[in-house]
Design a protein that fits this description.
Length: 376
């Protein structure tokens, strides 16, 4: 049996090695390492895939979120609502810009933002909502967009874990994750469903004005060379990373299919175990399984992780400390017990290996090890 990886990037690369190597070599031969042709070609390919007017590449997913907030003109003190059960970057950029993160609870089944919690958190200072499409499926974007419209709020989608997922509205229309709000963001961190070979990110919008501003912001605030019309940053997707992404993008739907195959195996093997909840599917969204995350009951989640580690099976805990309980975000507005769903999930969840390259032998070994511990 092949060694089990949390994400098997090497074997994924080997399947398209010639394409990747050739694309990288083209960049090296051209020596156009910044804003080279591959950056523009990838942007256009991504626009077509997403069905969106503008894709603005940038340095990473965290910058994508920050640039989005800068482009919307949010001011220090403005409140931005987001989930406490997410990676730190989502709230980090809000705080860095002097905005006020308002951390709310999530749905206990999908782990995504609870629309009722959003409604309760809105004040006269609220300016934006940042839904996080956690672990591979969309938050309830129809409800969130309705709330935003009713309260004149911006919506910035953190789609870093759900690239390729589709959201279907009650009228039957559908859109890709990241293209529903005013602005969408993603990361191309290597372990993402669409990942490069280093850091990278992108921003999506259908609004021409926001796009123009964001293109300037990522390049030191320049719309015309050496003319700085706004405060900007240096956040560019380098050409080698774009060359990698240009090759991998056509495989993204295939990768989602393979992740769903692995998820179905996990579901079948583990769904009868009373001490484990397999991932719930939100009916309005497809799932691309950036992570396959279990919710445990009546067993020690940390001991399960150790048990799996002893059998050379990596398993990760996302996220053991909610944002509202992190030292960096200590705030009199929050106390332990205030966000009960988030705090409960932080104690129960564990993610199993999820990769396009998992084979049945590996999946049988992983599920067998989980059941061995759960049934002991």
């Amino acid at each position: 049996m092949k060694q089990i990886q949390m994400v098997d990037l090497r074997n994924q690369y080997l399947k398209i090695k010639d394409e990747i190597d050739g694309s990288i070599q083209e960049v090296i031969d051209s020596c156009k390492f910044i804003n080279g042709p591959a950056v523009h070609e990838f942007s256009k390919d991504m626009e077509r895939y997403l069905g969106v007017r503008h894709v603005i590449p940038c340095g990473n997913g965290t910058d994508a979120l920050m640039v989005s907030m800068m482009a919307l003109g949010l001011k220090p003190g403005d409140e931005v609502i987001t989930a406490s059960f997410t990676f730190i970057a989502t709230a980090e950029v809000i705080a860095v810009l002097g905005l006020k993160p308002v951390l709310v609870d999530v749905d206990p089944n999908t782990f995504n933002l609870d629309p009722d919690a959003i409604r309760k958190a809105i004040t006269h200072k609220t300016k934006a909502i940042v839904p996080v499409h956690l672990f591979g499926q969309c938050a309830d974007m129809e409800a969130i967009m309705d709330i935003a419209k009713e309260n004149d709020l911006f919506v910035i989608e953190d789609a870093c874990q759900a690239m390729g997922a589709d959201f279907t509205f009650s009228n039957g229309s559908s859109k890709k994750a990241g293209t529903i709000g005013h602005i969408g963001c993603t990361s191309f961190f290597p372990s993402k469903n669409l990942g490069c070979f280093g850091d990278g990110g992108a921003i999506f919008t259908n609004d021409d004005r926001y796009a123009e501003n964001m293109r300037a912001i990522v390049n030191h605030g320049m719309k015309k060379r050496y003319h700085h019309d706004m405060i900007g940053v240096n956040s560019r997707l380098d050409t080698i990373q774009a060359a990698v992404l240009k090759v991998k993008l056509p495989h993204l739907d295939e990768y989602a299919k393979e992740r769903n195959r692995a998820a179905s195996y996990y579901d079948s093997a583990l769904s009868s175990c009373e001490k484990i909840n397999t991932p719930a599917r939100f009916k309005a969204s497809t799932h691309v399984f950036h992570q396959y995350t279990l919710k445990t009951y009546d067993l020690d989640r940390d001991q399960l992780q150790e048990h799996l580690r002893g059998k050379n099976i990596p398993a990760m805990i996302y996220y053991p400390v909610p944002l509202h309980l992190q030292k960096a975000y200590k705030d009199d507005r929050y106390a332990e017990g205030d966000l009960p769903v988030t705090e409960d999930l932080a104690k129960r969840v564990i993610s199993l290996p999820m990769s396009t390259e998992l084979d049945d032998q590996q999946l049988e070994y992983i599920t067998g090890a989980v059941l061995e511990f759960a049934n002991a």
